[in-house]
């Protein structure tokens, strides 16, 4: 098919979708029907749909067909709090906070102003952080079941920066990394930026399909696996000890690096030890203080095998040089005086109360969550569409995330994620009532 004719068909579909002639939810012809109708080769018909999907205008759904998307949803929905307008109840992005945290910061700044070390904080710091601050983080990690020396801890500018440092250092463009089919959107963004190939590990309600991971490793040159074993985002699972041991065994058999994301691990209570404890020779543990303390406190940490530390330090130097000294000093002081541990306990209780409220309001809907997590995964009925529901809720002044930002696979499940940690309890109840009503209307 001449390129001009192929492009004309793409442009015609795009114009019909943008004008509303093909409204959101319209089922399009199958690839074979499109080819027959326009006299195209099947591969060319598939290219037409692939280009429209890349433009964000349609979506293909396994077993259901190809549909026009709800294009009025703001771009980035589900990964950016910036899309939330004034007056909107935000169930899209989690930034849990507790009363009195601003007073904690005022006190910390006063104490810092009186310290004899203040002038040192105005100078460049060692790339991985000052050793006494790395020691504070190492003590904090012991509470998570991870015993590492300070020399194997690096302080970074938040967990997202930690992930970037790890992936930039250990992986190169074209490398293959396995990740859960539904996973943290920030990881997806990094993988795309670094030109990595992400292979999806099918997921269940309780953990990744590790048999599928084994099969992937037998057929593809997988270099690493990205995992959230404790308080998975968005599904809320906590992998049991047997699952963790099996994942470690697969990693050793196929020589995989493990990137363990523990950003939400503080919300889980009595859980098995981290992957980094079970396979310290090949696991990088990444976490931070955004969720358990405050999102504006951009302090994170990486614990890693000794052979990778120098490489990580070079990448920190290349990206931020070092974590800002003032924020790191406040953060490690709060670790040392027990403030972080106290805030974690309070936020676990807060998350549990929010989950209890959600169970009450959403009774009758299928939900997937952990009783101590700040999010709920809400699968939708077969005839419901996540983009339409998200748009309908926006008109009700409630912002939620459809599944797309979390999906590694091209075919996105119809589900929405509800973030529970960013609004007060009364607003949360109001929003959840609207969620149940809208989901029920479209089901």
UniProtKB/TrEMBL annotation:
Q: Which domain of life is it from?
A: Bacteria
Q: Name one Pfam family in it.
A: Aminotran_1_2
Enzyme Commission number: 2.6.1.9
Per the database record, which ranges form the HTH gntR-type domain?
3-71
Q: What is this protein called?
A: Histidinol-phosphate aminotransferase
Q: Which family does it belong to?
A: In the C-terminal section; belongs to the class-I pyridoxal-phosphate-dependent aminotransferase family.
Query: SUPFAM superfamilies of this UniProt entry?
Result: PLP-dependent transferases, Winged helix' DNA-binding domain
Q: Which UniProt keywords apply?
A: Aminotransferase, DNA-binding, Pyridoxal phosphate, Transcription, Transcription regulation, Transferase
CDD domains documented for this protein: AAT_like (cd00609), WHTH_GntR (cd07377)
Q: Which GO terms describe its molecular function?
A: DNA binding; DNA-binding transcription factor activity; histidinol-phosphate transaminase activity; pyridoxal phosphate binding
